Amino acid sequence: MPGLSYERYGLTGNPFRELATENLEDVAIFHVDQDVDQSLRAIREEVFDKENRAVISIIGELGAGKTERLRVTEAEAKEQKAFAVYFDVTEKTPAILRGLAQEIGKAAKESGLIKTFGGPAWARPMAALEKVKDEKYDAAEAGRTIARALNETAPSFLLLNDLHTLIESSEIDAFVKVLQEVANGIKPGVLVMFSCYTSYLPWLSVNHPAFAQRINRTFLLTRLKGDEAALLLAKKMLVKRVVEDLDPTYPFDSDAVTLLNAAAGGNPRRLLELADVVMEYAVAHRAYRVDQDIVQSVLAERRSPSTEALLPGTKPSQPSLAPQVPSNPQPPQAAPSAPASRPVSPSKPPVPTYRESDPQ
Length: 360
Hints:
Elements lengths: L23 H7 L4 H14 L5 E6 L6 H14 L3 E6 L7 H15 L12 H7 L9 H14 L3 E6 L10 H14 L4 E7 L3 H8 L1 H4 L4 E4 L5 H13 L15 H10 L4 H17 L7 H10 L59
């Protein structure tokens, strides 16, 4: 579709084509504050001022904004000239500890802490961690090395994305012990933050209670409210806007935004996916306004096993890959007495519920 087709909406193109806002240049522009963000901001300020230390988990379903909170923290840390290490735990990561050590070394070099000749006392043992070959390493010593690096570079931030992916790694037991030792060793001025699916924490609590008990705060990312959904759409369109003095959500009217958010279940990623399709539909049909009728037409055309779960009043034909968070979460149930040998797969998770909580 030619770019000029969007001129009727005062836009240069479809602003919803890029779903992720995970790079540092865009994250501050597109981020929409929710209730948890005020608490996260207060914790970051305490770390910047070296008044406190913390281990935090950010939980939620796929597309809820977990990675974005880590990126927001990273961007703010870099703006404050603080030491920040962001690391994706992916299924393709062959050695988690080695990859993390390499990221710490890279961040230290970029910030000038490690030079060609010489460096801090923790640099040499960190370099040794960059060469570990498998999970048969001294997890306690590795954790102490990382904690020492974070303490000596404070204020510092260790940000681990998608920790639930560890279920696919043979390194899971060793690496969790590393994190436990890091949690034991960090001092005021250090923040360790990780994201994971909601279903991962119960398994962690059962199989690695020593580390789980060191998590100071757990934040559940809840569904977007109506005004938050409207603000997200407005922010995405603002960067493509060429006509001033328009309603921030134009061409979407308020009823259309409400219906889109309901269809997306308040999930930011699904909201943007649907907005993308609706925008294309509106352009193709030469509509001058995206109203409730247009949204309903798109939703009707998209009835399939993957989209039925997005439609208001329908039940999904198959389970979502990520756990669904109820609108009124209750405290988690007591953990079973006998731990499982391996974490439950995210495709069939138990669905415990959390809100922002104190240490277990």
